[in-house]
Amino acid sequence: MQVSTAEFKKGLRIVFDGQPYAIVDFQHVKPGKGGAFVRTKLKHMRLGKVIDNTFRSGEKVELVEYDEKHMQFLYKDDRYHFMDTETYEQVSLSADEVGDAREYLKENIEVDVLYIDGSPTAVDVPNFVELTVARTDPGVRGDTAQGGTKPATLETGVVVQVPLFLNEGDVVKVDTRTGEYLGRVAAAG
């Protein structure tokens, strides 16, 4: 199936130079002189490298044909292990294959594993996850005139900026697309 550049959106998976890419970012540009074009950042779905490319406005590109299997993350040793929630079949992926999703993987989280040509290629985590604050400095009263933030290391090892009132053990909601703190779900204790 083909799509036009007018239908581009973040996360769309397209074939470029015979390889599967996901659109990370795009911008429609209409210069004063010459034809309109679309400037994109594309992330290779297998290798993880990001490239820049420009498409002419209205150009058609092929969509990646893939299967999506709903899986549960089991555990991590030197590889990441997942189990199909329907067939109970297990697969293990390397850190490179899991990509940025590894920052949000905690045991028993449900994810979608993308298969291209029968082999697992990428992991899609939910847009929002709830993680426990593992380490953070205590907030000091009177630190700021306005609301301030401090870095907090979450249970998976990812570091996000959180408000000063949060403490270790608090459960927070994080947007996996941007890495932003969205709110506190539960206080410690």
Features:
about 190 residues; mainly beta; SH3 type barrels; OB fold (Dihydrolipoamide Acetyltransferase, E2P); 3 domains; six-stranded antiparallel β-sheet; five-stranded antiparallel β-sheet; 1 helix; 16 strands; about 0% helix; about 55% strand; flat
Overview of this structure, please?
By secondary structure, the protein is mainly beta. It folds into three domains: 2-63, SH3 type barrels (Roll), CATH 2.30.30; 67-124, OB fold (Dihydrolipoamide Acetyltransferase, E2P) (Beta Barrel); 128-186, Beta Barrel (OB fold (Dihydrolipoamide Acetyltransferase, E2P)), CATH 2.40.50.140. The protein has a six-stranded antiparallel beta sheet, with no helix packed on it. A five-stranded antiparallel beta sheet has the order 9-8-7-10-11. The chain has a five-stranded antiparallel beta sheet with strand order 14-13-12-15-16, with no helix packed on it. The protein is flat. Helices cover 2% and strands 53% of the residues. The termini are far apart.
Short recap of the structure:
With 189 residues, the protein is an all-beta fold. 2% of the residues lie in helices and 53% in strands.
* Class inferred from helices and paired strands: mainly beta
Shape: flat
How much helix, percentage-wise, in residues?
Answer: under 10%
Rg of Cα set = 20 Å
> Based on the structure given, which CATH architecture of the largest domain is correct?
Roll
Counting DSSP E segments of at least 2 residues, the number of strands comes to: 16
Uncertain spans: none
- Element-level helix/strand string: EEEEEEEEEHEEEEEEE
